[in-house]
């Protein structure tokens, strides 16, 4: 008789799942509401307010946006380690939520210093919140529980609901009442998520999950202060340091010099990147033949995922500016609200594509990982090619139909569903057990490096002007020519993977 895992589960149940799942669902939904609501406004706010007086405001915006995105994702590696070793998931999520709430509310203060401090609070807070709430979901289920996959599906639906609704509401508030009302709503979203999480703890729905490690590190004193108090203190003290990095967006050198147009954050991530690649080369060299092949594939899919996210994350920067300056939105939505389109398509397409893989598996036709990655990059390339040819349909004001943007997001969302859910699971399958945690850290860091790609492209497509109403034919050619180049790189990468897929499959061995 099959073992009934639900009888071993002590926590309260709801709809056949641990009740704690639904508290985490709403906590994450509201956290993503705050994150994507703020992100939808960020680029336009910098262009139209923070750097309004600068002729190179697009360049400055691209640099700050890239640094913000890179540091947001890099912080999760540090926050995750602190949680594992000292704080535990509950304390880390709560600390992160408090810092992020403060950051969103500080954004509602119209002041340039406050702006950089606010972004820094969000970066530091995200480092504690983001890696732990997803991990928390997995701890709610016993090992071997077949409900875990559907539990994560429910959880990730909350992410996309937040990502869909937030730009619509925050964007509407920003246009109707002012930027800071939009930012404040994002702050209330984060606060709501924190309240949901706290109520789950108070109601005991998490049982004994997410508590600090039994090693007692949380109460160990360093410099006479317990870690449970020292870490929040150090986190707050880190905020002005991160704010300084964000505000140092100007190039360290000039064209033709050693640093060129690189700022401090660019240099930091280049050093980190070289160090990681060197260590990966060492690990691969030390591995046996079977491990070596799988590790090479793990590195390859991480690199290709970085390229994909680098193009995908342009949605919050260059594509938002393109929507503002060159899309005939026709009252359908504002430029900031177009950030909701990706999550909308993910919600619509996730189940059909999941059913497609299930159907193909039954027919023994489910394509292996290299094919899915190749197709994902082809869809991404096609999406940018759609934006490139949109110039042929521009009206007399240099505006192109909204349908092109809608189709672009449709295609890149399919690409995302081909790549993102697959990649994460394959990293664990391809990595030797002794370094799986390190490889997961590298995988998450790929999103941080993707924002370096975003920054590079954003700088190349920056428009020099002090006119915040610039647009039409003054900007159309710059953007559409840039989109063509992105399309070529993405299509080229996709074709390369498809050609190399037989070789890659051999390296993967028994991993599908």
Would you kindly provide a written description of the structure presented here, covering whatever features stand out?
- By secondary structure, this protein is mostly helical.
- The protein is built from 15 helices and 6 strands.
- The strands form 3 sheets. The chain has a two-stranded antiparallel ribbon. A two-stranded antiparallel sheet has the order 3-4. A two-stranded parallel ribbon has the order 5-6.
- A hairpin with a 2-residue loop joins strand 1 and strand 2.
- The longest helix is centred in the C-terminal third of the chain and has 36 residues.
- It starts with 12 loop residues before the first strand and ends with a helix.
Short descriptors:
disordered N terminus, globular, mainly alpha, two-stranded antiparallel ribbon, 512 residues, 15 helices, two-stranded antiparallel sheet
Rough outline: globular
- Helical region count? 15
Give the spatial strand order of the biggest sheet: 1-2
Oligomer state of the chains in this structure: single chain
- Helix proportion: over 70%
**Class from secondary-structure proportions:** mainly alpha
Number of strands: 6
Give the biggest sheet: 2 strands, antiparallel
How much of the sequence lies in strands comes to: under 5%
Low-pLDDT windows of residues: 1-9
Report the span from N to C terminus. 30 Å
Output the helix-strand order: EEHHHHHHEEHHHHEHHEHHH
Radius of gyration: 23 Å
Mean pLDDT: 88
